[in-house]
Amino acid sequence: MQLDLTVVIPTYNRVATLRHVIPSLLASQTAARFEIVVADSQSSDGTAGYLAEVAAADSRVRHLPGAYTGRAMARNAGIAAARGDVVLFTDADIIASPELLERHLEHHRNATKIAVVGMELQVGSLADYERLRDRPEERRPLHPDKRKHVSWLYFLTGNASVRREDLERVGCFDEHFTGYGHEDLELGYRLQQGGLEIRYEPRAVDYHWHPVPYEEQKEKMRLAGRSTVRFFRKHPSFAVKARLGMTPVSLALHGAIAKAPGLLQRLDRTALERPGFARNVVLQYHYVGGIKDALEYERA
Could you give all domains of the chain from N- to C-terminal order, each with its CATH number? Predict the structure, then answer.
């Protein structure tokens, strides 16, 4: 049966948050026909049992287990299995607002050759989620409400939708991106290069419930830096290089911090005590470090 929309969720050992994510999607305020496809990288935490229980009560939920090598492969499996004309990407730790699906579909009903990116808010706990859900004035989104369009640099697949035919036309996600970072931006780049307009819809709200410890943030930034080099090798344009921060200036600043005695350690201590500018500098340092790692690996 053809549906209006398929929600694709890649997951691995996230059953604790899925128990909130799936009900939030099933409670969506829409008359549209939709399904939820969970592409599960063989979780060992009870995910299969939970999804079997939910699917028995609501046939809109489908479990798609597989030996996926990363989020790109898992999402591609979800696209291949999708019965919806539109595919909405989200994650196993992102709670949907009741209007999320309908706000995305409004755009796709009225236009073609578009992708839609919604408002993704970061929350540290369920209490934090409830606070931002009930107090919109306290939200601090990445984009202002008046923004109508974004570039590929903000095609973040925690809250993004595209027609299935457009995904298939550009080749879906690049499964060579097996590490952390940029598989979504790279797809956004190809969609935009392929003539799609990327719209921003601030009323399509979801809540990303995944607080990341500081040390893990640093490691993720280093991995993202490595993915940047893969992105640039595939799309070797100055615009890509500049937008992703792979520039002589950023490389030189990284070198200057590395050579200054004790500077990185002092920044690290400040970042732990007072997250802000110092933390941004440290995370950028590790991101550029990942770029350098990948460039050195190429030369080896």
Answer: 3-209 (3.90.550.10), 214-299 (no CATH)
